Amino acid sequence: MQFQLSLTAALLALTGTAVAAPHEGSAFIHDYDADHDGQVSRAEFDAGRVARFKATDANGDGWVSEDEYVQEYSARLEQQLAASDRSTEKKVEERQRQIRQTHVRFGVLDKDKDGKMAKAEYDLSGARAFAEQDNDKDGIVTAADAATTAARQLAARQAADKADS
Ligand SMILES: [Ca+2]
Ligand SMILES: [Ca+2]
Ligand SMILES: [Ca+2]
């Protein structure tokens, strides 16, 4: 059992996935599959994004600041960490890594670098994320699409790691 747990942790570290357990499948589908049919249509995705933008814009002024962005992510991360069976030490590490990446992500999302993530900037990154997940480009992200994308991303990361070392 202990071996299995540390193996899982090692695999998660390798894939750089948040703290989602492998049996949960695609985090993308988990996040946006509102009608629970196991796949995400473009309409479902767009509705989910609108809701998330609103929820992230905590003070309701129409744009998301870096603080608001990190805050929203960190709340979700804490839920995942609370449900995870990793050691306290690993959770501290994971938290630091994820929060650091969230700041980096905000910088990428804020295309015009005015310190604000506008809805248009958010939509742009959403459209890109959906296109990346929808492997066969039919406008619906199925479990097969998500699995193919995950495999492609893993291969790309491994190639990048190799280039680094
Ligand atoms: Ca705001
Ligand atoms: Ca901006
Ligand atoms: Ca598809």
Structural summary, described in words:
There is one protein chain. The protein has 165 residues and is mainly alpha-helical. It has a single domain (27-147), classed as Recoverin, domain 1 (Orthogonal Bundle). It is 68% helix and 5% strand. It contains 7 helices and 4 strands. The strands form 2 sheets. Strands 1-4 form a two-stranded antiparallel sheet. Helix 3 (42-56) runs antiparallel to helix 6 (119-133) and helix 4 packs antiparallel against helix 5. Mean pLDDT is 87; it is low at 5-23. Bound molecules: calcium ion (3 copies). One calcium ion (CA) is lined by residues 110, 112, 114, 116-118, 121. The site of one calcium ion has 7 residues, from strand 2.
Largest sheet: 2 strands, antiparallel
Strand order of the largest sheet: 1-4
DSSP summary: helix tally: 7
User: Radius of gyration from the CA trace?
Assistant: 17 Å
- Write down the secondary-structure element order: HHEHEHHEHEH
Tell me how many strands there are: 4
Stated plainly, the CATH topology is called: Recoverin, domain 1
Helix content bin: 55-70%
Name of the top-level CATH class: Mainly Alpha
Total domain modules: 1
Low-confidence parts lasting 5 or more residues at pLDDT below 50? 5-23
Distance between the termini: 32 Å
Structural class: mainly alpha
Index terms:
single chain; 165 residues; mainly alpha; Recoverin, domain 1; two-stranded antiparallel ribbon; 7 helices; binds calcium ion; EF_Hand_1_Ca_BS
